[in-house]
Amino acid sequence: MAICDWRGCSECATHVVDLVAPDISTERWGVCRPHDRELKTKFVRSRPRKTPELPLPTQTSVLCGQCKRVLPERSGLLPTEREPCPDCDSMSRSINVEVGGTMSFHSSLHVRARHSKGGWFVRTKTGDDYTRDLEAWGKRELMIDNEHDRYREVIDLYDGARLESNARLRDHPG
Ligand SMILES: [Zn+2]
Ligand SMILES: [Zn+2]
Fold first, then answer.
1. Separation of alpha carbons 148 and 160, rounded Å
2. Which end of the chain is flanked by fewer CB atoms within 10 Å, N or C?
3. Which is higher by pLDDT, 131 or 73?
4. Distance from residue 37's CA to the centre of ligand 1 (Å)
5. Which ligand sits closest to the CA of 34?
């Protein structure tokens, strides 16, 4: 049996994991049981969260409160730090906050394409706890087939990424 693909690991590769995502080349990993779990966690964490949780780009502009001329002034300025409006000498301001259009997953992901196996590792966030990762998953399907000694797990993520793990059931106890 082949050796686990995980760097530095010399266990037997009992699980075959296929990774598919819009922005990476499809990858197939042969890994041991602990690294099957680790690979799943890392892959899920490397993917963007659900769309509504993505921060939308916002644009703030400062206008004169009286004549509505757009002023080249930071929105965070204190009233005492302001210069009078060059047109009408007013010191009052009105701040416009525009929330930009919805961000598209695919356009932003395209730029970050990686081609080497595990290249997406660099995007993996650390510090998020496992339950939060679970919420980010779109769907998780487990198939346990005692008769044919098959174990199969499929994780479909919101952004179209997919992970499929296959093993013999005897290699995936519990
Ligand atoms: Zn391993
Ligand atoms: Zn003005």
1. 30
2. C
3. 73
4. 10
5. 1
C-alpha triplet 115, 152, 40: angle, nearest 5°: 45
Q: Copy the structure tokens of residue 135.
A: 């919420």
| CA atoms of 111 and 121, how far apart (whole Å) | 16
* Dihedral pair phi/psi, residue 35, rounded to 5°: -80, -20
Query: Phi/psi of residue 42, each to 5°?
Result: -65, -40
60, β-bridge pairs: 97
Q: Is 138 helix (H, G, I), strand (E, B) or coil?
A: strand
Q: What is the pLDDT of residues 77-94, one digit of tens each?
A: 887 888 899 999 998 888
Position 116, amino acid: S
- Which ligand is nearest the CA of 63, by number? 2
SS (H, E, C) 28-75: EEEECHHHHHHHHHHHHHHCCCCHHHCCCCEEEEEEECCCCCEECCCC
* pTM given for the model: 0.55
Distance from residue 62's CA to the centre of ligand 2 (Å): 11
Ligand 1: centre distance to CA 167 (Å): 14
Cα dihedral across residues 36, 42, 48, 54: positive or negative: positive
